[in-house]
Design brief:
single chain, 77 residues, mainly alpha, 2 helices
């Protein structure tokens, strides 16, 4: 815990400071840890994309669009 404000590194509270701190943490990782992090980020991206696709499909169905053939929605034509 920080005893006083003088002990706190306020440089970490800027965009540049946060970026520098992240880079320092990244540089401490082993190659294996870096690859695992990339894999986890890929999994997260796929999960977020699936959530987005599900939300978009639901909105299209609620709007009356054909989820199989979006060009044949009620508004087209």
């Amino acid at each position: 815990m920080i005893d006083s404000e003088e002990d706190f590194d306020w440089e970490r509270c800027t965009w540049e400071g946060v970026r520098r701190t992240q880079l320092q943490a990244y540089l401490k990782l082993t190659v294996r840890e870096r690859l695992e992090a990339v894999e986890l980020m890929g999994q997260m991206a796929r999960a977020l994309q699936a959530m987005r696709d599900k939300r978009v499909a639901k909105a299209e169905v609620e709007a009356g669009a054909d989820p199989v053939n979006p060009a044949s929605s009620q508004g087209a034509g």
